[in-house]
Structure formats: C-alpha cells, structure tokens
Amino acid sequence: MTDQIMTDEPPETVEYQLRTADESSVATDGGTTVSSDTVDGETDAVDATLDALESDGLSGYNYAYLDEHTKREVRRSMLKAVAIPGHQVPYASRPMPLARGWGTGGIQASLSILGPDDRFKVIDQGADESVNAANIRRLAENTAEIETTTDTTDADLIQTRHRIPEEVLTDDQILVLQVPITDALRKVDPSDAANRRRHAHKNYGKMWVHLYENVVEWGEINISSRYPTMVGGRYLMDPSPIPRWDVPKLDDADNLFVFAAGREARIYAVPPHTDVEPLAFSDREFTVERFGGQSCHACGSTDTYLVEVSEEAGDTDRETNNTDREFETRYACNDSSFCAKRRENPELPKDHHLDRGGVDWGPKTASETTGSRKTAAGKTKSPGGEAE
Amino acid sequence: MTLLSATGLQTVYGEGCSRCIESTGDRAGTNQCPHCGSVVACAEADLSVREGEVLGIVGESGSGKSSLAEQLALERDPDATTTGMVDYDGYDGNLLAVDYETRHDLRTSDIALVHQHIRDGLNPEFTGGGNVAEKLLSAGWRSYEDVRDRVQELFEATEIPVDRMDDPTSTYSGGMQRRVQIARALATDPELVVLDEPTTGLDVSVQARVLDMFRQVQREEGVACVVVSHDLGVVRLLADRTLVMRHGHIVESGLTDRVMEDPHHEYTQTLINSVI
Asked: Which stretches does UniProt call biased (Polar residues) (chain A) (predicted)?
C-alpha cells in the first residue's frame, strides 16, 4: 500500500521521504545518544528544502499574490457594484498577510485589477511615505511585478486610505478606497438587518433626523468624516472616512471609485459621471472644512486640504536644553506628493496635466483658485460661508 | 363621506381551522378555538369611519380592540394571519394587501398610529423635536427652518414646553411622551389617526389634559380618528360613534350617546353599570 502511494507522488517528494525515513531509523538504532552526524544530516535536509523554496522566490505565489479564483470573485463583485452605484455588494474577503482593518479590502481590490503594465500608487491619509502605504506598495511590487509611483498623475491605480488626491483624476485612472465601516446608517441604527431594509426601500428618515439634531446642537452639520452621501439619487453611501473636503470630488468625476472593506467583506463603487450628493438641508448647506485663511507652510497653497501640525519653531537651540521651547502650530498640505510639486511650482493648478479647463474637482476648481492663491488669506474659503 | 370602510376583518394567532369562527365569539363565550387552539383576536368585524369623525372602540382586555386598530393603521404582526378588506378613500385597492413601500408612504402621509406603548412609537435617543421631525423628514421636507417651525407649532398645539424640544425623549415625563406621540402623528396632517389606549399609564389629571388637548386639535384639524380604549370615559369624551367588542367580535355599535344611555347588549349593560 505504501508503494502504491509513493508511485503516485512526484519523484522529488519520494526521495525526500525515503531519506528522512532512513535517517530516523539510524537515530533510533543509536539508542539515546544522538550522533552529531545525524543532527547535521537532518538540518541539511531542512536547509536544502528551505533553499529550494528560497530560490523559488515569490514565484511560489500566484501573480499578484491572490489566486485567480479570488481575483475573479473580487472583480465580479466590483462589476456588480459598478452596475448598482452606491450599493454594498458582498464578496468573499480572504485573509491577507496583515490584520483586517489595515487595508485588506483595498489590497484585495487593487491586486485583483492590477496588471503588469500598471503603475501603482498607495497613499495613507495623503502621504505616500507612511509605513502601511510603503508596505502595500512593496507587496504589489514583489508579487505583481508592477512599477510604483508617488505621482498622482502618473498612476493607473491608486489605493488610498481616507483621502482623495488633490490633483484631478482622469478616466484612465481607478481610485480604490479602504473602508472601515460600510454602512452610513450604522451611526443611527446598529442593526444591519434593519439598515438593509432601509436601503431596499430608500428609507433614510432616521439619517435625516441625525442631521437635524446635528444642526440643532451645532448650528450647522458638523459631521467631520464619513459624510452620508446620496449616490445616483438612490443609495445612501458611506464615502469612507474622507474629510468633507473630498466629498464633492465624487460627484460627476471622470474616474471610477471603488470602495472595498476587507473586514466587512463588502465592495461598493461610484462609477464615472455619477451624481453624488452629500445630504444637507436646503437652508443648511453642505460645507467643507475651513482653515481661516491659513496656507501650507511649505508650499503656500490655500486651496488644498490642510492639516494642523504642532512643531518646534525653526531656530530653537536644542543644545541649551531649554524646557520653555516654543511650539508653533503650522498648517501643511495633507497631500504630500502634490505639496512637493507646488514647492517646485507654486502656481501649479490641480488640473495642470489635463488639456481642458473648467474641471470641477473638489471644493474649488483649479481655474478659480490659481488667480486668488496666497492673496485669498482672510477670505473664507468654503462655499457654505461662516458657521452660525 | 366615508373615508375608510372595513369588511370582514379577521386576525388569527395560530394555525386556524375551518371551525374557528363558528366556535368563538360572543355566542361561544371565548376567543380561543376549542378544536385547534388558535386564538381568534378579531373576526367578522365591519366598520366605517367618515371624514372628521371619531370612532370609539371599547371592550375588555383581550377583546380584540388593539388587533382591529393595528389592522386599520397598517401595523403588521408577522405572527398573525390577517384577512379582510379595507377600503381607503386615498388609495385604490385593499389596504391590507399593500406592499412595504406603499404602506410606508401611507403611514407617513395619510394614516398615523399613536402606539399604546411609547417605546413602539418613539425613539428615546432622539430629542422630542427629532421624533416629530422624523415624520416630516421622511415625508420629504428638506428645509431645516420649515421643519423647525412646524415642530415648534406642533409642540405648542399639543402643549409640550417648547424649551424642552431639544432634550432627549427619554428625559420626558410620561404625559409629555404621550403628547410627543400625538404631535408626531399629526405632523404631516394625516387623514386618519388611530389612537391605541391614549391614556395608558397617565394619572387622572394628566389624562384629562391630554384628552382635552387632543379633542381640541382634532376638531381644529378636522382629522378622522379611531380611539381604542378600555376606558368608557375616554370614548364618551372623544367618540361620535362607538363599537363594543367582546371575544373578538363587535357586539354592539351606534352613536356614543345611544350606546351609553341605552345599551342593548347584555355585555354593554354590564360594562356601563360597572363604570357608572
């Protein structure tokens, strides 16, 4: 019976099994004392196996890490998501080599649509340099043999966590957003079953009450991220934790947005040129973040999403170990790759790479902002005006 | 003009059999079928409500009042088997057969229910104003100021302190919560309001004020109403016509004054004698 099995198996494996069997028999014959030769022999065998694996490199993996069935499954869900904009499509989310919640959905979506000719960019809250972004980029580089880039205009596929780039995306590009919580309604009702029924019947009264109570409390809608957004006039969508600043970019865009959640195993999408409207009252409009006329300390931009950074003032003497060191609050562009470009060329518009003008992308179009940059300090930036 | 008319309303809990109806009701003295054990909550109920009219339904606990009211208010209990025909002026077809979406639309704009239990009707985490606003927002109101004004108007009409508008509903007293439910029911100017035991859990003086307020608002708005109560006083105060129910069947109906002064059915006589 043993012979039967052995002849069925590939010759290499047979050899290996025979050898270990011989050696183990030698070891038992030797009694309790195990000769050093035997140990070396066993280690050699393991090393040889490991070496064989090592020389294999990542060719032991399928192209782009995921097996073809998984990729097909993800792509199929993506197609369905594109067909029903804003609807959450379930898919078989696989375990990935990092914890769920760290971009596993985004990685599965990206790796499923990457091809050898694609250029891939990964950003984590606007930065290409974050550890997570760098590692995801490296995984794709190693397994899919693609080129990576940090230049938004140069990338075919961009995976992002919690930001949409400042530069206008084109119809050749796909943006994959990592999503931690898929249902906008979960904020008002923790029951997914009840929420699915609400989606089915477009019954969003409860979310409207949430907005109403928000205005009662704050005088305006102050949801900072995950702003509830109506897609194609039908489905209420959680646009992932992008700031309000980025929400208008989803409306009538040239590119495809794919939202993928690994933990919740859901994919949804906003296809190109879909109407995307943030929920708001007719007399309490949707507003984006205001920075009080601040500009980026590095590139001077006033028309980008800025983040506050608390840093030591420039010329503090570290040697004196002075505990009264002054910290100052500075504003910096959140999109680091565009900030680098603006440092080279401060007047660079967000649609510099496009032939056509009048591109509507985000809170302010590039043509509107180029003239008023830097001089706009002091003016309110948001279309919605001041808080009441 | 008849706003709503119902014929042959029937709600059965349990499997039911062919002899359920003949073996239950007033003649049999029970609402449980001796053959199959099913409970016939209400059966063979015919009624109609005219525009602006208040119809009272009285009866003891378990007589089928609430089952009847829930059917009229399009509230569905998945455990029950319901049959019958409800004709509503604003809808073409049987109200009992409508799909979820039509039912939701009708419940938002045309037919409102004030639940017996506050938990069923209000979301305690929302503010009192938010609970009333939900009705307006579901009906498609999109101007914050309009919603705000309407909620305030309803709070004034139902005598809820307007200062408390933005407090969580869970901090309201029982009487206030009941008023919020009524305000919510009236928010979108419905054609019909179904009140299920409007005075449950309220003390006598609060009961009187809630009923007084409701009677006034009902007259002003001219909204038709079905009031379900075990309390004859409530029905006497509000209703133009009254149905008396027992063991799931309507045993007597007529003008409220006639039923109260000259009860024909033995049970109605006992009921009235026990109160007055």
From this structure: 23-38
